[in-house]
Amino acid sequence: MNQTIDTATARRMAEAGTIRGVSIIGQPGGWSVMLKTGIHEKPLGGQKTDKPRTWRSLDTLTEYLRKDLSIVRIDSVDATHHSSVDVHRPGRPDAAARMKRAHEAAAHDAWFRAQVDAGIKEADDPATKWISHEDSMARMHKHLDQLEARARGKN
Hints:
Elements: H1 7-16, E1 21-27, E2 30-37, E3 40-43, H2 58-69, E4 76-78, H3 93-124, H4 133-154
Parallel strand pairs: 1-4
Antiparallel strand pairs: 1-2, 2-3
Protein backbone atom coordinates (compact mmCIF):
# COMPACT_ATOMS: atom_id res chain seq x y z
CA MET A 1 0.00 0.00 0.00
CA ASN A 2 1.29 3.45 -0.89
CA GLN A 3 2.50 5.61 1.95
CA THR A 4 2.08 8.80 -0.12
CA ILE A 5 -0.29 10.32 -2.66
CA ASP A 6 1.32 11.01 -6.04
CA THR A 7 0.76 14.26 -7.91
CA ALA A 8 -1.53 12.79 -10.57
CA THR A 9 -3.80 11.24 -7.93
CA ALA A 10 -3.76 14.45 -5.87
CA ARG A 11 -4.75 16.45 -8.96
CA ARG A 12 -7.70 14.10 -9.63
CA MET A 13 -8.72 14.24 -5.97
CA ALA A 14 -8.60 18.06 -5.99
CA GLU A 15 -10.72 18.17 -9.16
CA ALA A 16 -13.23 15.77 -7.59
CA GLY A 17 -13.32 17.77 -4.35
CA THR A 18 -12.28 14.84 -2.15
CA ILE A 19 -9.39 16.65 -0.43
CA ARG A 20 -10.81 17.84 2.90
CA GLY A 21 -7.74 19.61 4.22
CA VAL A 22 -4.16 20.58 3.45
CA SER A 23 -1.38 21.09 5.98
CA ILE A 24 2.17 22.20 5.36
CA ILE A 25 4.71 20.61 7.67
CA GLY A 26 8.21 22.00 8.25
CA GLN A 27 11.02 19.51 8.52
CA PRO A 28 14.81 19.52 8.29
CA GLY A 29 15.63 20.65 4.76
CA GLY A 30 12.29 22.05 3.72
CA TRP A 31 8.54 21.67 3.68
CA SER A 32 6.14 18.84 2.93
CA VAL A 33 2.38 18.62 2.36
CA MET A 34 -0.17 16.47 4.16
CA LEU A 35 -3.46 15.85 2.34
CA LYS A 36 -6.57 14.94 4.33
CA THR A 37 -9.21 12.80 2.69
CA GLY A 38 -12.01 11.83 5.02
CA ILE A 39 -10.40 10.25 8.07
CA HIS A 40 -7.10 9.51 6.29
CA GLU A 41 -4.11 11.82 6.02
CA LYS A 42 -1.15 11.11 3.74
CA PRO A 43 1.82 13.11 2.53
CA LEU A 44 2.14 14.24 -1.07
CA GLY A 45 4.80 12.01 -2.61
CA GLY A 46 7.60 12.46 -5.08
CA GLN A 47 7.22 11.65 -8.76
CA LYS A 48 9.20 8.42 -8.84
CA THR A 49 9.25 7.39 -5.22
CA ASP A 50 6.84 6.60 -2.42
CA LYS A 51 8.60 9.08 -0.13
CA PRO A 52 7.17 12.46 0.88
CA ARG A 53 8.13 15.24 -1.51
CA THR A 54 9.87 18.25 0.01
CA TRP A 55 10.31 21.81 -1.16
CA ARG A 56 13.13 24.07 -0.01
CA SER A 57 10.99 27.18 -0.29
CA LEU A 58 7.56 27.75 1.19
CA ASP A 59 6.83 30.15 -1.68
CA THR A 60 7.64 27.49 -4.27
CA LEU A 61 5.47 24.98 -2.43
CA THR A 62 2.43 27.26 -2.27
CA GLU A 63 2.87 28.20 -5.94
CA TYR A 64 2.96 24.48 -6.79
CA LEU A 65 -0.23 23.83 -4.81
CA ARG A 66 -2.01 26.74 -6.54
CA LYS A 67 -0.90 26.13 -10.10
CA ASP A 68 -0.45 22.36 -10.33
CA LEU A 69 -3.14 21.12 -7.97
CA SER A 70 -5.54 24.10 -7.86
CA ILE A 71 -5.35 24.06 -4.05
CA VAL A 72 -5.71 27.58 -2.68
CA ARG A 73 -6.70 26.94 0.93
CA ILE A 74 -4.19 25.67 3.49
CA ASP A 75 -5.49 24.68 6.90
CA SER A 76 -2.26 24.92 8.86
CA VAL A 77 1.48 25.48 8.67
CA ASP A 78 3.62 23.76 11.28
CA ALA A 79 7.19 25.08 11.33
CA THR A 80 8.16 23.37 14.60
CA HIS A 81 10.78 21.11 13.02
CA HIS A 82 11.67 23.23 10.01
CA SER A 83 15.31 24.00 9.35
CA SER A 84 16.78 24.95 6.02
CA VAL A 85 20.36 24.27 7.08
CA ASP A 86 20.04 20.68 8.31
CA VAL A 87 20.11 19.00 4.92
CA HIS A 88 22.55 19.60 2.09
CA ARG A 89 21.08 19.00 -1.34
CA PRO A 90 23.42 18.88 -4.29
CA GLY A 91 22.71 21.14 -7.24
CA ARG A 92 21.34 19.85 -10.50
CA PRO A 93 24.04 20.24 -13.16
CA ASP A 94 21.81 18.39 -15.64
CA ALA A 95 19.10 21.02 -15.13
CA ALA A 96 21.62 23.83 -15.59
CA ALA A 97 22.84 22.30 -18.84
CA ARG A 98 19.28 21.75 -20.02
CA MET A 99 18.37 25.38 -19.27
CA LYS A 100 21.51 26.62 -21.06
CA ARG A 101 20.57 24.61 -24.18
CA ALA A 102 17.00 25.93 -24.00
CA HIS A 103 18.22 29.54 -23.80
CA GLU A 104 20.66 28.98 -26.68
CA ALA A 105 17.88 27.45 -28.78
CA ALA A 106 15.55 30.36 -28.00
CA ALA A 107 18.26 32.87 -28.91
CA HIS A 108 18.96 31.07 -32.20
CA ASP A 109 15.25 30.91 -32.97
CA ALA A 110 14.90 34.66 -32.38
CA TRP A 111 17.94 35.36 -34.59
CA PHE A 112 16.64 33.07 -37.34
CA ARG A 113 13.18 34.66 -37.30
CA ALA A 114 14.77 38.13 -37.49
CA GLN A 115 16.82 37.00 -40.52
CA VAL A 116 13.72 35.64 -42.26
CA ASP A 117 11.76 38.82 -41.51
CA ALA A 118 14.62 40.95 -42.89
CA GLY A 119 14.74 38.81 -46.03
CA ILE A 120 11.00 39.11 -46.58
CA LYS A 121 11.14 42.87 -46.02
CA GLU A 122 13.98 43.19 -48.54
CA ALA A 123 12.15 41.00 -51.08
CA ASP A 124 9.00 43.11 -50.73
CA ASP A 125 10.91 46.40 -51.13
CA PRO A 126 10.23 47.88 -54.62
CA ALA A 127 13.80 49.23 -54.71
CA THR A 128 15.28 45.72 -54.51
CA LYS A 129 17.30 44.84 -57.63
CA TRP A 130 16.53 41.32 -58.81
CA ILE A 131 19.01 39.12 -60.68
CA SER A 132 17.76 36.51 -63.12
CA HIS A 133 18.47 32.84 -62.53
CA GLU A 134 20.62 32.69 -65.68
CA ASP A 135 22.78 35.64 -64.54
CA SER A 136 23.15 34.13 -61.08
CA MET A 137 24.21 30.74 -62.47
CA ALA A 138 26.68 32.41 -64.88
CA ARG A 139 28.28 34.32 -61.97
CA MET A 140 28.47 31.14 -59.89
CA HIS A 141 30.11 29.13 -62.73
CA LYS A 142 32.61 31.94 -63.32
CA HIS A 143 33.48 31.97 -59.62
CA LEU A 144 33.83 28.17 -59.54
CA ASP A 145 36.09 28.28 -62.62
CA GLN A 146 38.30 30.86 -60.86
CA LEU A 147 38.49 28.68 -57.75
CA GLU A 148 39.39 25.59 -59.80
CA ALA A 149 42.08 27.52 -61.70
CA ARG A 150 43.54 28.79 -58.42
CA ALA A 151 43.48 25.26 -56.99
CA ARG A 152 45.28 23.86 -60.08
CA GLY A 153 47.89 26.61 -59.85
CA LYS A 154 48.73 25.71 -56.25
CA ASN A 155 49.17 21.96 -56.95
